[in-house]
C-alpha cells in the first residue's frame, strides 16, 4: 500500500477530533459504504460508557485523515440519522458469477484522499484449490453487491491476487519481531544467570554448614 492508502481495520478506534473546537468527539466505530459507488458514505464515532454515544459524519465533513486522528467538521444541524445507516460489508460472502462461494469480506483498502474503495479483501475458504489467506478483489470485478453478499467475475475470484502489506510494513514487522526476540533472549539469559548465582550461593552455604 502507498501512504495515501489505508485499510479499514487500521482506522477502527482511531481518535476523532472536532476541527472547530479541537474537542475529542470519540473514536471511529465503523465505516459506512455507498456500495454501488464503492465509496465511503461516512463514518460513525463512539464515545461515552460502553461506546453508546454515537455520531455520524458524512465523507464531506472529514477534513483530514492522519496517522493518529481523523479531523472532522462537527455540526449538530448536519447530524446523520444513524438508523438509516447499516452498510458495513464486513462478513459479506464473496461468490463467483458461476455460483461458487469463495470466502468472506474481512477488510478493504481505501484512498484517504477520495474515500474510494481500492480493493476489497476476502478470506478464502479453500475453494478451487485457493490456499487459505487474504486475497484482493478489485471493485471493477464486482458485478453485484449488497451488505450480505458480493457476486464477482468468475475469473477474478478463481485467480485472485494474494494480498500482502507493503515492503516497509513487512520489514517493520520483521524488525519488531527481531527486537522482541532479542529482548526476550536477554531476559532469559538474565534469569538463567540469576538462577545459577542462587544455586552457587546455596551450594556454598551448604558446604559451610557441613564444615561447621
Pick out its properties.
3 domains, SH3 type barrels, 25% helix, flat, 212 residues, six-stranded mixed beta sheet, alpha+beta, 3 helices, single chain, seven-stranded mixed beta sheet
Task: Walk me through what this model shows.
- Residues 189-199 have a biased composition (Basic and acidic residues).
- With 212 residues, the chain is α+β, with helices and mostly antiparallel strands.
- The protein folds into three domains: 5-84, SH3 type barrels (Roll), CATH 2.30.30.240; 93-158, SH3 type barrels; 167-212.
- It has helices spanning 8-11, 154-158, 167-211; strands at 5-7, 15-18, 24-34, 39-47, 53-58, 62-65, 69-72, 93-96, 101-111, 117-124, 134-137, 142-145, 149-152.
- The strands form two sheets. Strands 1, 8, 9, 10, 11, 12 and 13 form a seven-stranded mixed sheet that branches. Strands 5-4-3-2-7-6 form a six-stranded mixed sheet, with no helix packed on it.
- It is flat, with a radius of gyration of 26 Å.
